[in-house]
Write a structure and sequence with these properties.
By secondary structure, the protein is of the alpha/beta class. The protein has helices at about 15-25, 45-55, 75-80, 85-90, 110, 125-135, 155-160, 200-210, 280-300, 315-325, and strands at about 10, 30, 40-45, 65-70, 95-100, 115-120, 140, 170, 180-185, 195, 215, 245, 255-265, 275, 305. Strands 1-8-2-3-7-4-6-5-9-10-11 form an eleven-stranded mixed β-sheet, with helices on both faces. Bound molecules: threonylcarbamoyladenylate and magnesium ion. Magnesium ion binds next to loops.
Length: about 325
């Protein structure tokens, strides 16, 4: 029997924010809005609270969590920042950038999956920032989806996936960016590595740092093998319906299959033809991508044919998520 929905969605009123901050301090989980995707938050300094995140998501303990802070000053509490990290933090925070750095002892091992490093970011979503300030502790939060499924970009997505596992969701509207943060490994500031592409592009980061950033390729290794770069598994963000990617979409000739263009195609509309952004604007496409995959997964299509984005920067981030969605 399916478990009953226990999650309630709270608007970001001052009273609700105070209540949810108090729940977080008491060791409970709260679904939170961020500018990238919704997160599932717990007090990052409380190992038992963080263990609940792994249980609710069905996430393997080998996959570490991102710690969210509300000011650059708070960095030194959870990690040992170097000059390169401070440069990127001052330039891009608050915003969709996560830095991997050597951790301090206050961060429980469950957060970092036993590693001596921790991933930290300062989000820009105003309601989440208020909640962070009221909670008064850093918040560990992975994306608020069941492990392996498409990341949530609305409070309703969180309820649809985790509604029977959690009690509190803060509504902050649809995520304005729609893709998870860019992750840069700065443990060795001489050799920065891009672990995950996002809305802040490699070029922007290289310009700010004044040096090259290496791109780490995802592995397609099975889930429970210990990983060098955790969370880099290829299979991720996957709808149940098979996703097939195309540099150029074929004519939408099969009525049981969906065809998803980046921009609105010319020609007659059809029930199985979709687009991510009317004008092909990649910011719009990124914002819409995960909601579109969820909607089409819930519809009755036998296959989702999706057009790859062209170009680099945000196109790399969109195509990274599409490749993961298509990985079997
Ligand atoms: O935009 C985002 O980053 C969102 C929102 C909620 O902030 N969070 C998010 O978390 O995407 P999640 O759990 O889906 O991704 C966390 C990933 C891990 O899978 C891993 O790739 C990387 O962050 N990560 C975390 N800690 C790490 C560490 N110590 N070393 C290397 N990578 C780490
Ligand atoms: Mg995730």
């Amino acid at each position: 029997m399916p478990r009953p929905i226990t999650a309630r969605i709270y608007r970001s009123t001052p009273k609700n924010l105070r209540f949810l901050a108090e729940r977080l301090r008491a060791g409970e989980l709260v679904g939170v809005p961020t500018e990238t995707v919704y997160g599932l938050a717990a007090n990052a300094l409380d190992a038992d609270a963080c263990a609940k995140i792994f249980r609710a998501k069905g996430r393997p303990r080998t996959d570490p969590l991102i710690v969210h802070i509300d000011q650059v000053k708070a960095l030194a509490e959870t990690c040992r920042p170097n000059a390169a990290a401070l440069k990127l933090a001052r330039r891009f925070w608050p915003g969709p950038l996560t830095l991997v750095l050597p951790k301090t002892a206050v961060v429980p091992n469950i957060v970092s999956a036993g590693q001596p490093s921790v991933a930290v970011r300062m989000p820009s979503h105003p309601a989440f920032r208020k909640l962070l300030r009221l909670a008064g502790v850093p918040l560990a939060a992975p994306s608020a989806n069941v492990f392996g499924y498409v990341s949530p970009t609305t409070a309703e997505h969180v309820r649809a996936g985790l509604g029977a596992k959690i009690r509190y969701i803060l509504d902050g509207g649809a995520a304005s960016i729609g893709l998870e943060s860019t992750i840069v490994d700065l443990r060795d500031p001489e050799k920065p590595q891009l672990l995950r592409p996002g809305a802040i592009t490699r070029r922007e980061l290289e310009r700010a740092l004044g040096r090259r950033i290496t791109v780490v390729r995802k592995s397609s290794a099975p889930t429970r093998v210990p990983q060098v770069a955790p969370g880099m598994l290829l299979r991720h963000y996957s709808p149940r319906t098979p996703v097939v990617l195309h540099a150029q979409l074929p004519a939408p000739s099969r009525p049981k299959e969906a065809y998803v263009f980046i921009r609105k195609p010319v020609g007659r509309p059809a029930k199985n033809v979709f687009w991510l952004d009317r004008h092909g604007n990649l910011r719009g496409a990124a914002r819409r991508l995960f909601a579109m995959l969820r909607e089409l997964d819930a519809a009755d299509f036998s296959q989702l044919n999706v057009e790859l984005a062209r170009g680099e920067g945000l196109a790399d981030a969109i195509n990274d998520r599409l490749r993961r969605a298509a990985a079997r």
